[in-house]
Amino acid sequence: MTADDLSRVRRIYEALTSEAPGIRIMLQTYFESVDAYGFVVSLPVHGIGLDFVHDGGRNLAAVREQGFPAHKTLGAGLIDGRGIWKADLRGKWATLAALRGAVSADRIVVQPSSSLLHVPVSAARETALPAELQGALAFADEKLAELVLLAKAGSQGVDAIAAGLGAAERSRDALQRSSARTNGRVRARMASLASEPAVRASAFESRRAVQDAKWQLPPLPTTTIGSFPQTPEVRGARQKWRKGEWSPSQYASFIQAQIREWIDIQNEIGLDVLVHGEFERTDMVEFFGEKLAGFAFTAKGWVQSYGSRCVKPPVIYGDVELPEPMTVAETVYAQSLTSKPVKGMLTGPITILNWSFVRDDKTREEVAYQIALALRDEVEALEAAGIGMIQVDEPALREGLPLKREQWAHYLDWAVRAFRLSTSTVKDETQIHTHMCYSEFHDIIESISALDADVISIETSRSHGELIGIFEAHTYDKGIGLGVYDIHSPRVPSADEMTQMIDRALRVLDPGLFWINPDCGLKTRGRTETVESLRNMVEATEAARERYAVKQA
Questions:
Q1: 118 an active-site residue?
Q2: What CATH number does residue 119 fall under?
Q3: pLDDT value at position 551?
Q4: Distance of CA 282 to CAs 279, 311, 454, 523, 524, Å?
Q5: 161 with 149: CB under 8 angstroms?
């Protein structure tokens, strides 16, 4: 924050205190350390809450080195408000004891590091999980119990909570000793990680020539992002299968019928690169987590995603490994129905990481590399089965950025490397696609290019002009598709609307590298609107091809 920003903040709190002198204000900070520590603790408030979990030790150092106002309360954020694991209570007690050396005990309030909005309510109901996993979980109820123990230790001494400390340690140790965390194959791969290839064998220009010769696609090729409508019929069939009312073969036959129908629809519409539709998938992370070793799923572990939408994030609790191919059967079946290329569809390692609860005994970077190596096995299985275009989606890449900009470079370095670990072992003729949405891209465009995907599609219809401006300033030299219509609306856009989107993009992007596609997957849309919108997209593309051919002539 600038000096002017800080001045405004001070005036705000002075006004609040002046207008409501009878109210005691507790200023909570969380998710990181406070940079302007001296300024924050000088504000005219009665208490300051600090995060001592995700601060990297910096908040603790500031309290010890710079002191804490004698007339204010310190909210000591000791229990992780975002993670789901039982705390190392001895370590938390040590932090609390260090704080008591700088702040009198009567002015310390023990609290979570942030709101408990980010975790489920109670782990007590998760009785279907492995015992060693359930025992190591701490949702909101369990975190409150941990706070009570720490407060008791603060008032009565650490011996008063000896039983609780011992129980917590035994639970954490049991999970650490479990076979899920001692996978020799995964450990061996991680030990040789430095020698694992994370760069394609050839540069993009060389790959492009090989791929152009193989695929013979028309100018401005058309495709979709991956999913097609998940109708009540599709969801109902999945429920029947999960409940055991349908056999696996009965459900597989249903999925094949859906794939066959939508391959026919895509061919009839005239799309150039097809997808199988993802009818067998519930969620783009859950589907893969259910098939990868090292993941578990709760029964009632709901958390708020945004608005009234809630999700049940997967729990990454062990070493991640691919036991058997996850997507090959459906993709190969779809490819058998058409002479046009069908893309294999995978969720990328960083999105799986950022949309899951992640184990706390390894760094997020290490876990990302484990996921990446498992996905590499799937990519290679798809390629070996004859799938020559593979899309690895990373919509959550930007979500993982640290709050402090000086830490961005490190995160982006390992995030890009994880993606490339997943995709870099394929042959030159295999075309790697990726897709991104939910993000602003202008400040990470270099990292997006560094993914070295042959084609990237980006959600842009709601911020098209802004993104085009980015490419006016930053050249993008690989295949790219900027979404030409908004899939979040049921409205069917006209061909003319999409034509305007295409023309605007081609002012700054190479037509020879440009792809045409919707903004995102079509899972939430209805059948009729999907078909009509895609017809209009193909119509707009054909008109653009005519204009492009005239310009080339």
A1: no
A2: 3.20.20.210
A3: 55
A4: 8, 12, 27, 10, 12
A5: yes
